[in-house]
Amino acid sequence: MVTSRQTQTKQKIKEALTQLLKQAPFEEVSVTAICRQAKINRGTFYLHYLDKYDLMDKLKEDTLGHIYDILTEETNQLSKAVIHDILWDIYDDFEFISVLSRTPYVKFSESIHHFIASILHLNPKIEKQITLFFGIPKEYALAAYIASLEAVISRWIANGGKESPDQMTEIIYQVSALE
């Protein structure tokens, strides 16, 4: 059972890591620095994580898992409403997502790519629509589709989220060209 105190501690650790990654690359951030920034002792950190890599892996997993939950809560359909909800979820945690995207250890583009592919595989109907839309073999059609969505999302994040999630929903929906 996770207590609210544990949740608060994990949030403090996440916020500390976010602030440190604004100043230095992940490879230069130490557990000591994270603990100092979060105002916790090392023992508390190690109650939750094995090391900074475990921390990053779990934060990445939690972030993508939450987005995946939004999708599966809404019947596995990649509808405009689901895209909108996912983009707002990213936007609500934009500061962390932004530093995550600039951390080579995370392989952000690759993670987004795999995430989009897993969403598409949940719905063979969408895969078929994509193949018909592009008029090329399925594996190439999916590669082109996934790469375009990943590029748009990555560019939005790299640009600092200038456009609102509402604007990005329209852009992604037009890029996806499925309807």
TrEMBL record:
InterPro entries: Homeodomain-like_sf, HTH-type_Tx_Regulator, HTH_TetR
Segments forming domain HTH tetR-type: 7-67
Name of the protein in its database record: TetR/AcrR family transcriptional regulator
Keywords: DNA-binding
Pfam families for the chain: TetR_N (PF00440)
Molecular function via GO: DNA binding
UniProt keyword annotation of DNA-binding present: yes
Record feature DNA-binding region, as residue ranges: 30-49
Keyword tRNA processing belongs to the record: no
